[in-house]
Amino acid sequence: MEELRFQEYLESVDEAKYEKIVSTFTAINWENHAEVEENILDTQLEYEEWVGKRREENPTFEFFSSLIDIVSLLLVFIRATRTSDFNLHLAVIEHMMPCYFAYDRTNYARYLPAYWTEMCNLKMTHPLAYEEFQTRGSWTIQRQDKWPFASIACDQGLEETLNRDTKIQGGIRRFTFIRSAVLRWLYAQPERAEIARICEEMCGLERSDRKPKELDKTRIRRVRELVHSVKNTICSMLNPWSSSEDNSYLVNISSGAIAIDKVKDDLLQAYHIGKTNMTQFLKDRINPDGKINLYDTLPKVNLKTFAHNYDTSTKVSSSTISKNSRSLLANLGRST
Question: What PANTHER family does the record point to (predicted)?
């Protein structure tokens, strides 16, 4: 979706600017690195300014741009883990938490602020652990040193190594009902995993210098196919980035339905509503002076979505129905 949005930006600039952008990204002269960096930075700033202006003008553009923002947060979270950047890890979690509050992800909304607060105070409460996390990246696992950007979370590392090597068909269920046998199976788990790993190395089945799977040609080709599939699907419907669309409505790109005012307000203000609730949660339940227990019932926000557009309890005006009909017919006309 970011690619489609950038394509719309390229179509909005004049020919001279377009040629400059294309030449910057396609004919990079690495010998003149400073000039290339300056051109890229100028393009980025102008693009961000254009996006900000369009987000203020067009509700549909704003809503789907917020989707890009959420996906970007997820990618930054993955980057923090892959690079063992503890500060980035905490920073991106702070920006992710409002989403869980806004969309009623109760477990994440309850426990993630507690985790985030504890980690932010780690320097004072556990300075040695904080030093390990900051300087050595000990909050993640990297099984080899040859390839960068390859750290993973500790629990994922256990799943991919120790637990994977000790799995039996069907798991521990139906293995046995004898308590002592189960305990022996658990106690011997590390030894069995080590034996399995050594046997694989002896047989040449395990290569510690294997490059990450994300760099495999088949994986890259598959990702490109998925990107093209998403682009083609969006282009076959209503393009949320198009400047030719009506700027005053929030439109469902698959059905052409126009969101009623309540749905529109909730969808566009979801992040801000979530941030307000998160701030109040931190004040009432995480702050030492808070009056509410962490485990007390967490009220839901129940934001409206496109699924509530034709809720029988919501009165829809005839003008909204007329707008929906016109938008749907226009959408059908574009797809034929």
Answer: CXC DOMAIN-CONTAINING PROTEIN-RELATED, MYCBP-ASSOCIATED PROTEIN
Q: Which domain holds residue 75?
A: 58-140+212-335
37 occurs within a structural domain = no
Cα 190-192-195 angle, rounded to 5 deg: 110
Determine the Cα angle at 9 with ends 6 and 12, to 5°: 160
| Structural domain count, the chain | 1
For residue 74, give every residue at least 6 positions away whose Cβ sits within 8 Å of its Cβ, in sequence order, or none: 96
**278 and 111 Cβ atoms separated by less than 8 Å:** no
pTM, entire model = 0.80
**Angstrom distance (rounded) from CA 244 to CA 54:** 12
Residue 105 pairs in a beta bridge with: none
Using CA atoms, how far apart are residues 129 and 121, in angstroms rounded to an integer?
11
Token output for 271: 């992040």
DSSP code of 256? Answer: -
Residue of 188, 140, 316, 325 lying closest to 251 (CA atoms): 325
For 117, the token pair is 């607060």
| pLDDT of the residue at 189 | 77
pLDDT one-digit tens code per residue, 115-161: 999 999 999 999 999 999 998 888 998 877 788 888 889 888 887 77
Indicate whether 166 belongs to any domain: no
User: For residue 87, is it within any domain?
Assistant: yes
Give 217's contacts (C-beta < 8 A, 6+ positions apart): none
In a domain, 302, yes or no: yes
